[in-house]
Write a structure and sequence with these properties.
Layout: H1 21-24, H2 41-61, H3 67-74, H4 85-112, H5 116-137, H6 144-155, H7 164-183, H8 192-209, H9 218-238, H10 244-258, H11 266-280, H12 292-304, H13 312-317, H14 326-345, H15 352-361, H16 366-390, H17 397-414, H18 419-437, H19 442-466, H20 472-489, H21 493-511, H22 521-543
Helix pairs in contact: 2-3, 2-7, 2-17, 3-7, 4-5, 4-6, 4-7, 5-6, 5-14, 5-15, 6-15, 8-9, 8-10, 8-11, 9-10, 9-21, 10-12, 10-22, 14-15, 14-19, 15-16, 15-19, 16-18, 16-19, 17-18, 20-21, 20-22, 21-22
């Protein structure tokens, strides 16, 4: 093993830095479109079936005013599409239970009090709870936003106590229907999610192997590959099927990626890319003959990788004051409450949209929140304009349902391209869904949504600046220490790979906070380079 360069000395005393608003509040590229997500159509189609079928039944039976409650359960179908089916079944059960519980709290609040201020406070607390829970569980898109939208809308829907059992039964029934819809593909492709996860890792490793040595983009490519490989191993751990055929491909991808420092390998890159295409197209799993060392790694892969699921105690700890998720939960609760109350002060009687807008602004750090605030505002205002243009044709129930379903497909198809474009479809869909239960005058609805959007984005962004997360620097330091300790030990590839991913994520988060002290950039870059070199040595050494 080659001798690694010495690490810069450790230290906790970092110089304070002056806010660089051009770095924290960037403008360039904010509205640029990216490639669409590879499986956007799966949640889109699941959502259309889970929401559309109950809507049609309600339309035929003359009870379309109940569509808000069936939609609440049906929207659960948007979750967990990247997970193996056994894990998806468990996760979807928690999604449905969480949606039902939040909707129950909101509807009960609506039935018990007419105070808009109290309703805003309840929804703000729910928004914070969903944000912390989804971030801690790493549940992925659409994360907390759908939960917050449904519960906020329910809190401002006219409700009587005697209606609660029936309405909540509809939420639960359609939630179970959504659960079934998300598990139906297991009949056709029982190992589809695992194949997709490995295909993504193969493609990432293929792209890394094609970079010339010394290319400035190689460091970022290493991180992308490490994240994809880690996600693939987690998917295989969660599977109840024999992981060995796919694990052999994944081990080979790790070996090819580890050798990328020695220069591009176009033949290996093309082979990995071809295997990735085969897995995506549902063909047979390519057969890879592992060497003795790779076979040994295969036998120990399950034991070497970190646990695939977080237990209930870990989730409970995420809500504690010492948790890394607690500061952003405080941001969400206070920011959403302030947005709703400011909107009320400006004359909006049902300010749930301001609360939802504020909730969407809160992401990992101030820089990303600034991006999200601008994107949300542009998308919402464009969506409100689209809703206004569609008003003449959406008075009929059939066209109303059709527009909602088309917008849902559009949102899933475009959200990964840029948040503002996805919001353009989400906004008219959300406005029409609220019209099912409590129709409003179009002019009043449009004016209130414009006002709520601006208030929610502005107040949410102010809260991001005003309520700091003082722990991001400490978490970056701790992640850096874990990488350096793993380098010193030099005996556990899985531990080192995980530590490198966590370091880059925590450093990126800390770098986007305008008030934090300066990061030890030299030490971080040195640790990442030494870590990736050691990871390559450990991987290629194991494969010989």
């Amino acid at each position: 093993m080659p001798l690694l360069a010495p690490a810069p000395p450790r230290g906790r005393h970092r110089a304070a830095r002056h806010p660089d608003l051009r770095r924290v509040l960037p403008i360039r590229g904010m509205l640029r479109l990216r490639p669409a997500a590879d499986i956007w159509y799966k949640p889109a189609l699941s959502g259309v079936v889970a929401v559309g079928v109950p809507d049609v039944v309600l339309l035929v039976t003359g009870h379309l005013t109940l569509a808000l409650y069936t939609t609440a359960g049906g929207l659960c179908a948007l979750y967990a599409h990247g997970m193996p089916y056994a894990a998806r079944a468990r996760t979807m059960a928690w999604v449905v239970a969480s949606m039902w519980a939040g909707t129950a709290i909101s509807l009960t609040t609506a039935a018990c009090t007419g105070s808009a201020a109290v309703r805003v406070a309840v929804v703000a607390v729910l928004a914070a709870a969903y944000k912390v829970g989804c971030d801690a569980a790493r549940i992925g898109p659409p994360a907390n936003i759908i939960f917050t939208f449904v519960t906020a809308t329910a809190a401002f829907t006219p409700q009587r106590a005697d209606q609660l059992p029936g309405h909540l039964a509809l939420v639960l029934l359609t939630g179970v229907f959504a659960w079934l819809i998300c598990l139906v593909p297991a009949v056709v492709r029982p190992s589809g999610p695992e194949r997709l996860a490995v295909a993504r890792a193969l493609l990432a490793a293929s792209r890394q192997a094609a970079f010339p040595a010394g290319d400035p983009a190689l460091d970022r490519s290493r991180h992308v590959t490490a994240v994809a490989v880690q996600a693939a191993w987690q998917s295989l751990r969660q599977s109840h099927r024999d992981p060995a055929p796919l694990a052999r491909l994944l081990i080979r991808a790790e070996s090819v990626a580890a050798e990328s420092d020695s220069g591009p390998d176009s033949e290996a890159a093309d082979q990995l890319a071809e295997w990735s295409r085969q897995l995506r197209r549902g063909r047979g799993v390519p057969v890879v003959s592992p060497g003795a060392a790779e076979a040994a790694e295969l036998r120990g892969a399950a034991a070497d990788r970190p646990p695939g699921r977080r237990g209930l105690p870990a989730m409970v700890r995420a809500f504690g004051p010492g948790s890394a998720y607690f500061p952003i939960g405080v941001r969400v609760a206070l920011g959403c409450a302030a947005a709703g109350w400011v909107s009320m002060a400006l004359g909006v009687h049902r300010p749930y949209w301001a609360v939802v807008t504020a909730a969407t602004v809160f992401v990992a750090n101030t820089a990303l929140s600034w991006h999200r605030a601008v994107q949300r505002t542009v998308g919402n205002l464009t969506g409100v304009a689209a809703f206004t243009l569609l008003t003449p044709i959406t008075h009929h129930p059939v066209t109303m349902i059709a527009v909602v379903l088309v917008c849902q497909i559009g949102a899933e198809a475009t959200m990964s391209r840029n948040y503002w474009l996805g919001s353009t479809f989400v906004t008219p869909m959300a406005l029409l869904m609220t019209e099912f239960a409590a129709p409003q005058a179009t002019s009043e609805l449009v004016l209130n949504r414009w006002l709520d959007t601006c208030v929610g984005a502005a107040v949410g962004l102010v809260a991001c600046f005003a309520i700091p997360d003082r722990g991001v620097g400490r978490r970056a330091d701790a992640a850096l220490d874990r990488v350096e300790d793993a380098i010193t030990a030099a005996d556990d590839r899985a531990r080192l790979a995980t530590a490198l991913v966590e370091l880059r994520e925590s450093a990126d988060t800390a770098a986007g906070e305008w008030w934090s002290s300066a990061l030890p950039d030299e030490r971080i870059v040195s640790a990442e380079r030494r870590g990736h070199r050691l990871l390559a040595d450990l991987t290629t050494g194991a494969s010989r």
